[in-house]
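Final report, section 2: Outcomes. Of the targets proposed, Shikimate dehydrogenase (NADP(+)) is the one most frequently requested by collaborating groups, and we therefore present its record in full.
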Amino acid sequence: MFMITGSTRLAALYATPARHSVSPLMHNTAFQALGIDAVYLAFEVGTIELPQAIQMIREFDMLGVNLSMPNKTAALALVDEVSPAGKLIGGINTIVNQQGHLVGHNTDGIGFMRSLQEADIQVPRKMTILGGGAAATAIMVQAALDGVAEIAVFNRRSTSYSRIEAKLQEIAKETGKVLTLYDSADAVALENALKDSQLLVNGTNIGMAELANECPLDPKLLYPALAVADIIYEPRETVLLKEAKKIGAKTTNGLGMLLYQGAAAFSLWTGQAMPIEKIKPLMK
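The predicted structure is given below as tokens.
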């Protein structure tokens, strides 16, 4: 039975909302399985509370924290050092406390690419991704670093469009890969991009919550050789994934990304590999 001691270390999630997260279950199970004297808690922290909350990592000698909405970008200026991937992505999801020196990392892209391997989906030559937000950007960066030669990105022509375009140019310059931004309303461009892609990624929120009955594209554009990944994990099977399965395409949801980004953070904090096989049954 797990016992809290006078030397028990703390790790945490800083997010709003935070109470729905499976991260405490995942990390506490891993701590107990490996006999690590630590606990993981979830705290409702927004950008207003974030500076003080990050200072508490030092004050309480915490192992570190995970960050989710809305804190990934705001935390960049509040840590002492940022990993190369975190800088390129423009956001961090993990902070590691190295004796008061706080280092920011982004493990989202690592988690996504590892989840493809778990689903028997090969690293593609070209991929198409819907959305240009924080998670989608992390996926783009890691995909480019891992050898994806061409990435077509589709996003609404909103106020963030020019910012996303500039970010893609930065990623292309740093990685030597081809990244092109298109308006998501351009149906012809989307159809042409998918014809040359081996992987489609939904990095939007279309398919969850109030949009749970919607699909981010016309299912007629899907075909069996096009693997489909959706970073949504609630519901476990979105409309997009259901349509892809109907035609025999390989699919994966966001649970794998969640698991493996957490495993990467766990290793950064502890220096040990998360016991993945003990965690998987908890995330069905």
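The first helix runs from residue 23 to 34.
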